[in-house]
Amino acid sequence: MISFISGKKTKQDKMPLRKFLYTHILKKRIPTVQLRGRVSDAGAVLLKKYQGSTVLSASTAAKLVQKTNKNLLLEIGFGNGAHIVSLAADKKDSVVIGCEMYLDGVVRTLEKLIEQKSDNTYLITKDARELIAKLPAKSIQECYVLFPDPWPKVRHHKRRIVTHEFCSKILQTLKVGGSLVLATDWAEYAGEMKHIIEKLVQEKSITLGTVSETETARILSSTFAERAKKEGREVYIQRIIKT
Predict the structure, then answer these.
(1) Which of 76, 178, 187, 206 is the least buried, fewest Cβ under 10 Å from its Cβ?
(2) What is the value of pTM for the model shown?
């Protein structure tokens, strides 16, 4: 789109077309994650069967959060479900909500939840930020962001989900005394997380918490943690508590 009056490009002209579309026409954040992976025919049937009961839209999940009086636990990016399934079994009196964009992981997690007859867990196949934007303030007791995509190439660091802005938005949804648990096996990403946490401490938004042995064991039993151990990478885990 070039200006034919001056023959020069305007600021909008210089803006990449995709960014212009999302910013000025759709008025949405440019998506940095998308649904990915294919599922078998049986997996597709399973997703369809549980759509609306266990597999929810972001809007339906937000309404559920508004209605329940139980403690709410949120996991962002549950992968193949090792952690969230264990969490659901240990916290049967809580409502557990998980967000994941990897469809095969959603199917595998759903199968595990059905096998253990879990009735307190709900899955969302949307960008977690879409759900967070809809959640009421001070509604979540615990949030887990475990082994998020590290986007190791420098030019892709902007796609990382754990940022100061992201953590600040999660803190808005947490109850006072509620906690956010972060984990990564990428040393450079861990350093970035530590810097964000230090800034939040300076802002008096949080205090540092501890991760129990039970929680640590649950996190370290996940697929990503086991892979990190095999490849010789240490796992960084930190709990922060909303003040």
Answers:
(1) 187
(2) 0.84
